Amino acid sequence: MKRMQKELYATFSMDYIGGKNMIDIKIKKLSDTATLPTKAHTTDACFDIYADCPDDIFFDWDIKEDVNGIRIEPGRAVAIHTGFATTIPDGYFAAVFPRSGMGIKRHLRLSNSTGIIDCSYTGEWMVALYNDGNETQVIKHGDRIAQFTILPVLDVQFNEVDELDETERGSGGFGSSGR
């Protein structure tokens, strides 16, 4: 079934640094079945992202019938639709993180560890999940699959130098600060 482009816009605001500033973000539902991001609690740092896959069906050979959902085999990654797109204001980006329960309980993680949605990207948000476990996992329509927050983009200027400042740690890398 072709994904529907629906001209429905919603605006949601986000607390930024202690609730002192609000950022308005335009969000567009791309299908009638999409669930817009939500917070379970007003004090949560991140918004939950939901799977939008009502028409995905596979045949489950164990129970010998069709099942709604998307199968993620062990050692495989699958991109999951969310059914929404956004316009993030200039100077900000969305950082997409895994949900802790997905990793602990289902051995699923974001395939790229942390997703970045730049302010210039206005396409559908997709969440690529990787199965680190030994069992096939099924993502069903409406499952919470990731979480995100909005962060500021910091302007940075690199200054090439011949020497760096001395520090206590120096060039000590992996494990150099102790166990």
Could you give the topology of this structure?
Layout lengths: L7 E9 L4 E9 L17 E4 L6 E4 L4 E4 L1 E3 L4 E11 L4 E6 L2 H7 L1 E3 L4 E4 L5 E8 L5 E3 L4 E9 L27
Antiparallel strand pairs: 1-2, 2-7, 3-13, 4-5, 6-12, 7-11, 8-10, 8-13, 9-11
Rg over CA atoms: 20 Å
The arrangement of helices and strands along the chain is EEEEEEEEHEEEEE
Integer average pLDDT: 86
What is the makeup of the main sheet?
A: 5 strands, antiparallel
Structural category: mainly beta
Shape: globular
Strand order of the largest sheet: 1-2-7-11-9
Helix content range: under 10%
Strand content: 35-45%
Instruction: Say how many strands there are.
Output: 13
End-to-end distance: 53 Å
As residue ranges, the low-confidence spans are 4-12
SS element count, helices: 1
